[in-house]
Amino acid sequence: MAAAVDESQKWVLMVTAQTPTNIAVIKYWGKRDEKLILPVNDSISVTLDPGHLCTTTTVSVSPAFTHDRMWLNGQEISLAGGRFQTCLREIRSRACDVHDKEKGIKINKKDWDGLHVHIASFNNFPTAAGLASSAAGFACLVFALGKLMNVKEDQSQLSAIARQGSGSACRSLYGGFVKWIMGKDDKGTDSLAVQLADEKHWDELVIIIAVVSSRQKETSSTTGMRDTVETSLLLQHRAKEVVPKRILKMEEAIRNRDFTSFAQLTCTDSNQFHAVCLDTCPPIFYMNDTSHRIISLVEKWNCSEGTPQVAYTFDAGPNAVMIARDRKTATLLLQKLLYTFPPNSDADLNSFVLGDKSILKDAGINAPEDVATLPPPPEIKGQQFKGDVSYFICTRPGRGPVVLSDETHLLNPETGLPK
Amino acid sequence: MAAAVDESQKWVLMVTAQTPTNIAVIKYWGKRDEKLILPVNDSISVTLDPGHLCTTTTVSVSPAFTHDRMWLNGQEISLAGGRFQTCLREIRSRACDVHDKEKGIKINKKDWDGLHVHIASFNNFPTAAGLASSAAGFACLVFALGKLMNVKEDQSQLSAIARQGSGSACRSLYGGFVKWIMGKDDKGTDSLAVQLADEKHWDELVIIIAVVSSRQKETSSTTGMRDTVETSLLLQHRAKEVVPKRILKMEEAIRNRDFTSFAQLTCTDSNQFHAVCLDTCPPIFYMNDTSHRIISLVEKWNCSEGTPQVAYTFDAGPNAVMIARDRKTATLLLQKLLYTFPPNSDADLNSFVLGDKSILKDAGINAPEDVATLPPPPEIKGQQFKGDVSYFICTRPGRGPVVLSDETHLLNPETGLPK
């Protein structure tokens, strides 16, 4: 055994990475292989700016570590789950020689099997908000471990590993516009993500997320999509007949920055995903009355303008992700949303509109009392639903994973334990 | 011209009929011919007891009438609509000789073209409650006119005329369990209703309707189904591949009084109908959070019992129609519903539970304060949603149209004007 992995040694090697979350505009719903997480159709997503929504993960290795451990948002969690183990095993099997000259650390390829890792992960948004935290989380875990272990595989190959942690995680390995190719191989080697365009390709787009208050406990997406595959008589038709054509159209819309087509495809695909959820036995409802009201507002506005101004899409929960064609539209949208879903009187504006707050300024909202001066949007006949939206996040398409500098480590560089 | 139709004569001849409403258990959604109202698939319904939900219509003829007139719930309404005109024309063209010896009135077949009718119609339930009032209304109009004009066609032939007033009206020409055969003929001659079984065939069933409070204006079913046909990519698959098999299974379930199969088909078909509404562009939401909660309650109860106790189905609105396997189950269901959706404190029990109030007695509810003593149903974790249901109607499968006695006329026998 090389000196490098002598357990008496005190060194700790670590890497910290940041990975974005993503929102599907052509939805993934239904697995053809539960264990390998192989989907029944291709999907396409937009990566969200990690400045507003991301996971930061520090992975570290030391001969002093006696077993693999992980902390999520400061709490130690079990790594016993099959999905964590799969990602760890797949990455370890691709580990290469590492030589950190500065620290004088040398790890040989074959040593990795005997070494344990400590992992600390942190989301800069509420985990429970239903904002695809597992996608960013598994993407970040795989990306960071890949850097730590000097894995030579390219981003697409890494995405196929992240996919086995959480399907949609594979799409968080790239910025901009990303396609998850379902693949044909039974072993899933060709079920991976590719970048369609980077975040600069279409940088007028502005994204506003409405985090919707809900009294319901939602069906987990794992359980939900299993039930849909087993019971929906519409899902296979969607997967085989509808989605393949939509994927081609969506790729073209993104290529041409054709917002009209992009919005139409995004909205109809979101609605069809929720339709197959409803066609499941027992039926799954992810959207609630607030979600419906947001759709109604956007649909009526788009209709009155004659051409789509805003696209909406909903994942496995009631939160609305709205994509505005440009900043001016986003400003108008935020005004309409704030009028319709004003904060509870005890909420301050600063915690009610998160992310890129400059849009709030553009909308003329500088203080809570300014919300009351907004004009009633004609789309929803001036009805108001105070407190039905918990908060908004203003963001945009963003970059893919990056390695962060040493100061950002979530683990103590000496002990490998959370700071 | 026969003396009978001398306009100076004062006689008025009238017939009053009562026709039930019906609730589809395999849904009709989508027309292949808008004008003739020809559907894209067969449907099956249960006729509801006219004692609780029905339309009563008086039709009258007199040489003194100068034009066709109609009153609905006491208000005169226009007969200019194409659907009224079609029904009137189709029935008139089949009119035969009428000889009322008692009154000394004789109308020859050929005289009908020169005679006008007065019609008065009355629903014994709120028209705006979304309880298929147009189905019962057109069925009653056609049935009553058929009697007045001595039309010789059988009930199925009449149903094909009522169909042209409102599609689902054709199913209200029979009691019990009714199938609307979509037919093949481009002219719609074979698109008509047949009775699968009468109301005595399966008389254990008890029906509870929850009339749900709603702030939304709903999409009319005419507009909604047109939009679905034009934009949903799932509807044709439903109509061609899914429904034909379900129809056969539902006929078998009804024949065998197989409640498990009946409930499963009823619930999944209701959900699929709402799924294709959601797959429409723009999407149509008929169910709201209250509807979802009712489904959740019933699904969880059915699941915990291991076998379905209650079926649910929703038409183009948020109201739930629940079919309980027997009276004991209906009593338990009503208890669970009253606990979960208690009346606003200002509502009295008598106007909160309508129809067959004996189920309320069986449930041990004799006074408003008894509602507060009900045990929390485990299915919905004791959550309560006061005021979210406007009222309940307890009913059962019921008979088809009947002619009522002269005392029930809604028009004055002398003047032919509303009483």
Task: Give a structural overview.
2 copies of one chain form a homodimer. Chain A has 2 domains: 3-200 and 404-408, Ribosomal Protein S5, domain 2 (2-Layer Sandwich), CATH 3.30.230.10; 206-395, Alpha-Beta Plaits (2-Layer Sandwich), CATH 3.30.70. The first copy, chain A, has 10 helices and 19 strands. The mean pLDDT of chain A is 93. In chain A, the strands form 5 sheets. In chain A, strands 8-7-11-6-1-19 form a 6-stranded mixed beta sheet. Chain A has a 5-stranded mixed beta sheet with strand order 15-16-14-18-17. In chain A, strands 2-5-12-13 form a 4-stranded antiparallel beta sheet. In chain A, helix 2 (133-148) crosses helix 3. The longest helix of chain A has 21 residues, at 235-255. By secondary structure, the first copy, chain A, is an alpha+beta fold. Chain A binds chain B through residues 215-216, 231, 233-234, 237-238, 241-242, 264, 267-268, 271-272, 274-276, 278-283, 285, 288-289, 292, 295, 299, 303, 383, and chain B through 215-216, 231, 233-234, 237-238, 241-242, 264, 267-268, 271-272, 274-276, 278-283, 285, 288-289, 292, 295, 299, 303, 383. Chains A, B: Keywords: ATP-binding, Lipid biosynthesis, Lipid metabolism, Lyase, Nucleotide-binding, Peroxisome, Steroid biosynthesis, Steroid metabolism, Sterol biosynthesis, Sterol metabolism. Chains A, B: Residues 207-403 form the Mvd1 C-terminal domain.
